[in-house]
Automatic annotation (TrEMBL):
Entry GO terms, CC: extracellular region
Pfam families: Pro_Al_protease (PF02983)
A GO term for molecular function: serine-type endopeptidase activity
The keyword Hydrolase is annotated on this UniProt entry: yes
Protein name: Streptogrisin C
Enzyme class: hydrolase
Extent of the signal sequence: 1-25
UniProt keyword Signal present: yes
Start-end of Polar residues biased regions: 433-444
């Protein structure tokens, strides 16, 4: 059963611990809606295959019928036999097929709209470029045929495949969010390999957990309290560790590391009881000792941030830089007044448990990205500009271009956020005023660099969002 620490002192009667869920609150009464994991993109082929697919999709347009890699070769399909030479020139093996990529996407779209007509034995449907069909997977082929017929799609464009698969929802582990033990609830601090860390007083070794959605989640594999106040929960395959800490407004902090911060550093706490916003303050002291009724806990971080019962186990992270600091242990005061003034909340430093589990091959889950571009990639550029793109859009930098009066080397770069695919084109203006691309970088990812030895003239950067949205920094250096 969760062990509830209560901070002792002269005003003990007025102090409230940031601990497990109060006994009068039932898990079912406050469970949050299920959070489905964001779909994970399929494994990408090498950069060469990705570039070929990207370039030919743009060049072939409506006749493009997909691309795939087989036995080390890039195959590009088209419905127009006259385009086979162009496909070979691009470095791919051509294949002439009956249906375009858009046609197959339309068939899949109709099936999507009629998904309610699919029996439970029909488990998945997807475009299969290799067979130039839409595959419908099902444990019962009769049910699959009935679904296809009820949807009204062209049956010749569909291939039914018998499958024993039984897909299930997957969920993200996110710092600050609720989890349940059989008797009460606490909050996730940070994801680690194979699970997450939380407060030790929230559960004993062997105790089971479920997510905020009441889906079975994991089991405590380590728990230390008092003395320390940390625990590790090992989760099942239905839950995926992430580098996220929720801000409770639909956005997230990204954990970048766990470098300990000094006294006076601005920090924020995320917990599942006070989940109206991210609560922030500063580190007041390090290496503090708290004498709870259950025993003494040493080496804690003391802050002026409020917390309430159920916030225990939640995350403490630096306000900037994404550095994980601590696991919510206990405290005094409350956030219910909306102010949290005069409160003290204590946190178990996260580095202690990370040092313990690191020899086992487990580590903090971090992300190199964040809400915007990361510093460093374009630092060497003589001129830097910023902007923001939505998927499919272009921007030209700088406005009106830049002029070089001498011949020589031009370098340019773009630095975008993780999870997007931004491309970079260096363009030169002709005497007639038209622009042509003289160098380009179109690798699958957010960051690109180009270099070009050119004559005097006017140049510009074209930045294209092949996929994804976000802010970027671009830079260029002229001769």
């Amino acid at each position: 059963m969760p062990r509830t620490p209560l901070l002792l002192g002269a005003a003990a009667a007025a102090l409230v611990a940031a601990s497990a869920l109060p006994a009068h609150a039932s898990p079912a009464a406050t469970a949050a809606p299920a959070r489905a994991q964001a779909p994970t993109a399929p494994a990408q082929p090498d950069d060469r295959a990705t570039r070929i697919q990207k370039d030919l999709r743009l060049k072939l347009g409506g006749t493009f019928a997909g691309a795939y890699v087989t036995k080390g070769k890039v195959v590009v399909a088209t419905t127009d036999a006259a385009e086979t030479a162009e496909i070979r020139a691009a470095g791919a093996e051509p294949r002439v097929v009956e249906r375009t990529e858009r046609t197959l996407a339309s068939v899949q779209g109709i099936l999507n709209k009629n998904s309610g007509k699919a029996a439970k034995s029909v488990t998945a449907w997807y475009v299969d470029t290799d067979t130039n069909t839409v595959v419908v997977q099902a444990r019962s082929t009769a049910d699959a045929r009935a679904f296809v017929k009820a949807s009204g799609v062209d049956a010749d464009a569909v291939r039914i495949e018998r499958s024993s698969e039984r897909p299930r929802p997957l969920y993200d582990l996110i710092g600050g969010e609720r989890y349940w033990t059989p008797s009460a609830g606490c909050s996730i601090a940070f994801s680690v390999t194979g699970g997450y860390v939380t407060a030790g007083h929230c559960g004993n070794v062997g105790e089971t957990t479920s997510g905020a959605n009441q889906v079975a989640q994991g089991r405590f594999s380590r728990s230390s309290f008092p003395g320390n106040d940390y625990a590790v929960v090992d989760t099942n395959s239905q839950w995926t560790p992430t580098a996220k800490v929720t801000r409770w407004d639909g956005t997230y902090e990204t954990v970048q590391g766990a470098t300990p911060a000094p006294v006076g550093t601005a920090v924020c706490r995320s917990g599942s009881t006070t989940n109206t916003r991210l609560w922030c303050g500063t580190i007041q002291q390090l290496n503090a000792t708290v004498n709870y009724a259950e025993g003494t806990v040493t080496g804690l971080i003391r802050t002026n941030i409020c917390a309430d019962p159920g916030d225990s186990g939640g995350a403490l992270i630096t306000q900037t830089g994404g550095q994980a600091q601590g696991i919510t242990s206990g405290g005094s005061g409350t956030c219910r007044d909306g102010q949290g003034s005069g409160d003290s909340t204590y946190f178990q430093p996260v580095t202690e448990i990370l040092d313990i589990i690191r020899p086992e091959g487990r580590q903090l889950v971090t992300g190199s990205g964040g809400p915007g571009p990361q510093p460093g990639y374009c630092d060497s550029s003589a001129t830097k500009v910023t902007g923001s793109l939505t998927s499919g859009a272009n921007q030209y930098q700088p406005s009106g271009g830049y002029t070089s009066s001498v011949s020589g080397a031009h370098t340019a770069c773009v630095d975008g956020p993780d999870g997007v695919d931004f491309d970079l084109y260096l363009q030169k203006q002709s005497s007639s005023g038209t622009w042509s691309t003289v160098a380009q970088s179109t690798s699958p990812g957010p960051d690109e660099k180009v270099s070009y030895n050119g004559t005097a003239g006017t140049y510009r950067l074209r930045i294209h969002a092949y996929s994804g949205n976000g802010s970027y920094t671009a830079g260029y250096t002229k001769p």
